[in-house]
Amino acid sequence: MRVFFASAYYGYRGLFFWETPTVYLTQRLLLPLSGLAFFSLIGKFGGSQPLEFYLIGNAMVIASLSGFTIGTAIGVERNIGTLIYLIGSPANRVALFFGRAAVHVAESAIFVVAGFGWAILVFGLDLPLSTWPGILLTIIVGTLAVSGLGLLLGAVAYVMLDAGVLGNIVIFMILLVSGANVPLSELPTALSVFGEALPLTRSIEAAREVAAGGGIAASLPLLLKDLGVGLAYASVGFILFSWIEVIARRRGTLENM
Amino acid sequence: MIYYARIFILSAKVQMLEVTASIFMLFIALLQPFFIAILAIYMLRDQAGFEPVYVIVGAGLSGLFSTILFTGSNSVTRERAQGNLELLEASPAPLMVIMGGKMVANLALALTSMVVTYVVGAGMFQYPVAVEQPAFFAVSMILALFSLWTMGMLFAPLSILWQPVEQVLGGLEYPVFIFCGFLFPIALLPGWFLPISYALPPYWAARSLQGSSLGTLESDEIVLTWLILLATSGVSLVAAGMLFRIFLRLGRRKGTLGFI
After folding, report:
1. Preferred mutation among B25, B42, B163, B179 to probe A, highest tally of A CBs within 10 A
2. Averaged pLDDT of chain A
3. Among B35, B43, B172, which would you mutate to test the A interface (most chain A Cβ atoms within 10 Å of its Cβ)?
4. Sign of the alpha-carbon dihedral angle for A155, A159, A163, A167
5. pLDDT tens digits, residue range A138-168?
6. Is position B259 within any domain?
7. How many domains are there within chain B?
8. Taking CB atoms and an 8 Å cutoff, what residues of chain B touch A121?
């Protein structure tokens, strides 16, 4: 547990705490909120769905930030030269690996809440008070699920030198095939199958159901499935993490910049 | 003059080698507009009177602008990180000429965004893509590239004094897409946002390119758009010149040009 919390706290503080407030707010808040506005406005201009569809979808997509930051954290460790010490430490790998994600999950969930707040205040998204607990649950589940994918990206970052690009590709894939902007039924079969395999897809659907007054109980099966998908990604990520660690040591890519 | 031209060309050549070796820049120039074009086509294709060329041009412009935004703000930062900024400033060649050459190379990379979005529209989705006013479109493209070059020149000096500018400007990517109406008309925005759009050269670039490709602008309207595009670009260039002069003087005085 000590390693888990130390990994969570120092992993976050060491890699991101030095950012100035301007950089932090621009990258963590302005970028996702303006992304939400951009894609929602495209939808409003000529999309086949009502504006609420795009607002809820893109607010939920902000959760993918956690996947991005978790995934790129390994790359940042490598760039600043701390990765070899991390690998060289005798710390428990499970605690170290999952601890890295903890703060990012909490932080991203807060930003998704900010996204919904932005959608309500600026675009007039109508979310009755009774739906808020359900929306909050979908936000937590969606963020956890996409964090599992982030852990997998983090593992791949051991050998792939530009994890940031990989993370960006994943975010755009989520924007395209998760149902956030285009209903899965309107996508070609291959893309919709790919969308089903990504985390967040079911959480987005659940959020829309809850917002439409469907209640938490009705959306629980979707949320459990999304949690399962996230857990599957995290497990594969952990296995890869252990395996790639050996390969990266052998190839000497731990220190490459 | 020949001396400056030689530096300009050499700088462009070196920058071209650098940006084409950067995976991140290739992502920004090629993959991001690719995804945005596909996404926008899927979102808008059921719209009554859907115009694929509107999406192709808009998504291409988003790639052009993003590439210039990141490479422009990164140009000085990169020289600083490599320990070259002090040497460049001490050399007899003006830094603005060196950066001007770099920005031309950045534009060449950025232009591939347009090719990518054309391939998405005409190749992947098999839409008939035709430009209604080719001559106007060609002139609009040249002026749009000039305006983006001036924007890049405006971003470049900011990091002389303010190192995190690259991350901060990176956050302005979507706001600029929104204000410039790359993929939807700015009429969707609240009225008080419009003066911001009018002050941005890429808005006029988008207006002239989309207007000429769709044939929705009369010739006098398009000429007026070009004039405003030139005027806003001119203001950007003059501001860039002032920023280079002032920031370099301050950087020398503070001794911070070599700070990493």
Report:
1. B42
2. 86
3. B43
4. negative
5. 999 999 999 989 888 888 877 666 778 888 9
6. no
7. 1
8. none
